[in-house]
UniProtKB/TrEMBL annotation:
Compartments in which it is found: Membrane
Short name of any one Pfam family annotated for the protein: YhhN
Species per Swiss-Prot/TrEMBL record: Arthrobacter gandavensis
Family affiliation: Belongs to the TMEM86 family.
Record PANTHER family: GH04784P (PTHR31885)
Coiled coil spans: none
Superkingdom field: Bacteria
Protein name from the UniProt record: Lysoplasmalogenase
Transmembrane segments: 17-36, 42-60, 72-91, 97-116, 128-146, 152-168, 173-193, 205-225
Topology in membrane: Multi-pass membrane protein
Record keywords: Membrane, Transmembrane, Transmembrane helix
Amino acid sequence: MSTAPARDQVQALPRSWWWGFIPFAAMSAVHVAARAVEADWLAAPTKLTLMPLLAAAALWGLRGRWQNGPAILLLAALFFSWIGDGAATFLPMLPELPVMLGAFGLAHLCYIRLLWKYASVQGFPRWALAFPLWWAAMLVVLWPALGSLAPAVALYGVVLGGTAAAAARCSPLIAAGGVLFLASDTILAFRIFMPESMPDITSALVMLTYCAGQGMIVAGFLRTFRGAANRA
């Protein structure tokens, strides 16, 4: 039997449910602003607080509705995202980019499973066909600059697009979050592999779309999940 909620189970929740997201939203604003003005002394430490604060918001939203499967997947996705955010800090003896790709790849696998099993409310919409086209276009454009990382980047693109595709089967809030997460990593890919094509302000844009995307996926999932639990 499917554990995915029906579309009519996505409902509004009490205002107090959103309080857990206030620290995450505030720190995201500080971090993005620091990126925008190139205040690295502030951007670096605030980045490492983002996923723990979002995890705290997730725990707040799960209170009274704790179920091991979805909770573990959600917190694992945020944990691996945190490792990806702090790859250079947590594992300085390893090359940063491969660690980032690996950690975020695991985060996306958790999200795919989470959204597919516990948050889907519909089949694939037609507009989701844009995701395989995005993957092919990104490889065509970036391939000459990828070098030995080409296979890893191609594989990461599959799971990144997979999260966006899984999110497309969910509520509009989750779907929008999936698109923003994909946009963030797309901009980041160009900053890493074709930096001459990206102005400095795109550093802030990477983090703006990343924070918004992650936050919307988590908020949308909790809204759907709690709505389904309330109707059970």
